[in-house]
């Protein structure tokens, strides 16, 4: 049954809706047509405006002095919002780059910026390609059938980003579990528990781990990103424990979960569009375009929130001071006014003005690394691929923030 605008808006606050991609995109398409800046008052959530058009998401991103990340950078329940604000007042809350505005955002972002600049990324490429080969070889070892999302895609980017941080491989499984609990807090399979207090506890476990790491890197600095974060100084003073741990959390989690979702979703798209798979194999020079199309197609980050600092208008809709806005990236990336045939997976799409990495001052710090990883993996896989097909039904994570496929059963032959 086709939803009305009210029902479509409520889908944005329903983690299970994101796991039903066709129905979810049907709701977003309706909002773009009928109510592109739509007021949502969902049970258990504080109200917000859903922003679904590419042009409007861009306008909000550009106006970072009018629309702030704080105090509500992500969609959360009323109770979790309350708990987060209490902890922020006590100085013991998660405070990553996505929680900050200038001037704090600018100076904190600069701590890790050099590690993601082009020269640093070129230096990382041999390691990324080595790990891509390791995980395509793993597909061979798995004997021609596997759950690609769980057995391959989730591990490759994890190894890349945690190698950049300088964490020992013995800790990688722990980081994977904590990340799945953090981003999968609304998914019954991944969540540690259903209560908001249990979700907060996941963050506290992250903090405890990274506090130990900070102490170790300050005593014995090393040549890795973890040491750069631990020993960073702002106005001559080191970051406090929670800001340091928060920096680790955003790099360690967003730095792999989003990329693994893109690799899994990209492979599913190639399987379900064999003409595009054949086209990419015949014309490997299309790979950079294909990578961005996979990123647009999957859009692993589903939303960020902004808060208006004064009364304003967006597409003729009056937004009041203090109102919250939800920027729907999956919707912006299927906007019919921007993308030709947006529901067609096209490995040669050019131009591709997707907003999966955001825009402006909050543009994703790790965007270049993500592109390198996705490209390296498929450049290793496709020349060795004989055949490939689905071996079961793909399943997606229930989430309102970051997610993608949690299961992708495939059958294949590889050289």
Description:
GO terms for molecular function: cholest-4-en-3-one 26-monooxygenase activity; heme binding; iron ion binding; steroid hydroxylase activity. Belongs to the cytochrome P450 family. Pfam families: p450. The chain is an alpha+beta fold and 415 residues long. The chain has one domain (5-35, 45-414): Cytochrome P450 (Cytochrome p450), CATH 1.10.630.10. The chain has 17 helices and 14 strands. It has helices spanning 5-11, 15-18, 21-34, 54-62, 78-89, 104-113, 118-141, 148-153, 156-165, 172-183, 196-219, 225-230, 241-272, 274-282, 287-298, 329-332, 367-381; strands at residues 37-40, 48-51, 67-68, 145-147, 233-234, 237-238, 303-308, 312-314, 317-319, 324-328, 385-390, 395-396, 405-407, 409-414. The strands form 5 sheets. A 5-stranded mixed sheet has the order 1-2-10-7-3, sandwiched between helices. The protein has a 3-stranded antiparallel sheet with strand order 4-14-11. A hairpin with a 7-residue loop joins β1 (37-40) and β2. The radius of gyration is 21 Å and the shape is globular. The model has no long low-confidence stretch (mean pLDDT 93).
TL;DR?
With 415 residues, the chain is of the alpha+beta class.
Helix and strand topology:
Blueprint: H1 5-11, H2 15-18, H3 21-34, E1 37-40, E2 48-51, H4 54-62, E3 67-68, H5 78-89, H6 104-113, H7 118-141, E4 145-147, H8 148-153, H9 156-165, H10 172-183, H11 196-219, H12 225-230, E5 233-234, E6 237-238, H13 241-272, H14 274-282, H15 287-298, E7 303-308, E8 312-314, E9 317-319, E10 324-328, H16 329-332, H17 367-381, E11 385-390, E12 395-396, E13 405-407, E14 409-414
Parallel strand pairs: 2-10
Antiparallel strand pairs: 1-2, 3-7, 4-14, 5-6, 7-10, 8-9, 11-14, 12-13
Helix pairs in contact: 1-3, 7-9, 7-17, 9-13, 10-11, 11-13, 13-15, 13-17, 15-17
